[in-house]
Amino acid sequence: MAIVEQVAPDVLLLTDVDYDLDGEALRNLAGRMGFEHSFALAPNSGMATGLDLDGNGRIGEARDAQGWGKFSGDSGMGLLSRWPFDPDAVRDLSDLLWRDLSGAVLPKGPLWTDDIAAVQRLSTTGHWIVPVLAPGGPVDILAFSATPPVFDGPEDRNGLRNRDELRLWTQVLDGAFGPAPQDFVLLGNTNLDPFDGDGLRQAMRDVLADPRLTDPLPVSAGGMAAADPGQTGDPALDTADWPDGAPGNLRVDYVLPAATWTVTGAGVFWPAPDDPDAALAQAAGPHRLVWVDLHR
What we know:
This protein has 296 residues and is an alpha+beta fold. It has one domain (82-295): Deoxyribonuclease I, Chain A, CATH 3.60.10. It has seven helices and ten strands. The protein has helices at 2-7, 24-33, 114-117, 157-174, 202-209, 221-225, 278-283; strands at 11-17, 37-39, 76-81, 91-92, 127-134, 137-145, 184-189, 253-257, 262-268, 290-295. The strands form three sheets. The chain has a five-stranded mixed beta sheet, with no helix packed on it. A three-stranded antiparallel beta sheet has the order 1-3-2, with helices on one face. Strand 5 and strand 6 form a beta hairpin. The chain is globular, with a radius of gyration of 19 Å.
């Protein structure tokens, strides 16, 4: 919470937070962090499919859920805001079947059957469009947390799914799922670096190159100092600190505003090793907080 106090965002997306039906835990957390408003929907992570998705002969395990999770609500998302949400205008795309995404590339092999295709959702956690009633007018928050493109086999199920989770947002901006958002900010953990690590990295490069979006290029001194040998991308842009080569430091967390916004500042909370606040970032886990200041 000390990091959030320092950065003082107006809107914050939390990932890997457990969901409870009444939202009590998230409300309490929001209050402790100084936010008046919180929002969450039940995630796909931990949602039972009733099928043996990983082919190990058992059902009901974490890898058999719509998104990896040991129980319903495991590793969900939560939005916190200093301004109210408009729950009646929320659009939730989390129940879209993977096979129903236009142009979806589905895995092949014994671990992908007609029965699985009939229930498998695209979203690992969720894809939400949540309006925030900001002082200058509503802002649509496009929130998601995608599957890591690993932990599968030669069928590349997670890699393909990760790519299509990104492609869904492109189609949202095309107007394929209702009116295209206008004043929006895309927030999320894509689990995909545009240049390094595993995954179908071109998908991330395509999103960053979309003219409807702005890449604020948030950097940090800590990321630069922790550069991995042989890294292709700019280490100053990295947002996750993982062991070298497994998979190493990567840029996987993003705040991408619509091109209509004016970006006045951006960064990653990853202080240099000799900074007194470096310990805060290390204690918070591998992911770093990404922030962007915007004006209309």
